[in-house]
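Hi there,

I know you've been waiting on this one. I reran it after we fixed the sequence typo, so this is the corrected version. Both the input and the resulting structure follow.
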Amino acid sequence: MILIDDIEDPRIAHYATLKGIRQSSFDDRLVVAESEKVVQSLLKSPLEVVSMLALPQYYEAFGKLAENIPQKYIATEELMADIVGYRLHQGVMAAALPPQSTPLDAMEGPVVVLNGLCNAENVGAIMRNALAFGVNNILVDSATSPPFLRRSVRVSMGAVFSMNVHTTENLGGALKVLKERGYTIVGADLTEPVIDAGQYRFPEKYALVIGTEGHGLQEDVVEACDLCVRVPISSQVDSLNAAAATAVLLFAALRDIGHTTLLPPR
């Protein structure tokens, strides 16, 4: 293990900043995981972990999971506290190479599609919701915040590491590919005619398209949808947060078709 005693050490530069992956396309920048639970999810995932920076006790706690990490860095609690977000990273972080974009024709089962969601926390929460309801395919357009951005990874609680992620600059074309594979494209939008989610039965192969709270789906994306659904809410509230709406709609889909990947009831 290598002791880090200077926060300016270039070997930990990617840990000392909140930037992480900022581009919408997959590139050679590192995916950074922080906090014990999220780092553990990363170590159990297929991603290639290249380094870990942690208080010494975490190496003992992770045991065999941390054995094959090429670069193992340790630091004092004082230095770890100087790194931005200490209450979030809890003294343990790991970095991995980003995965390749999953081909659309390799995706099986329902897909959650993100159209123009620039809020990284919303993206992370949606991925966590999706995995909770048995969906592990995410299609994102180039206007959406990258799913492997450090903040998204954190909010997803590591769910992103279990996701098949496809990034596209041509969302309309990608939706067409899914249609050709037998998917029903369901837009979460108020564009008429719209169906209340409680009155719609989701098919087994569906792609749920989520847009921004303020503007909804882009017009050309709405045109690519087979239909639109909405969550009926009180007139006292204008709209739901995108992540909250996604959870409600995925629960409705689960009610209709179920998912074998879910855990049995306790």
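Quick highlight: The longest strand covers residues 49-54.

Best,
R. S.
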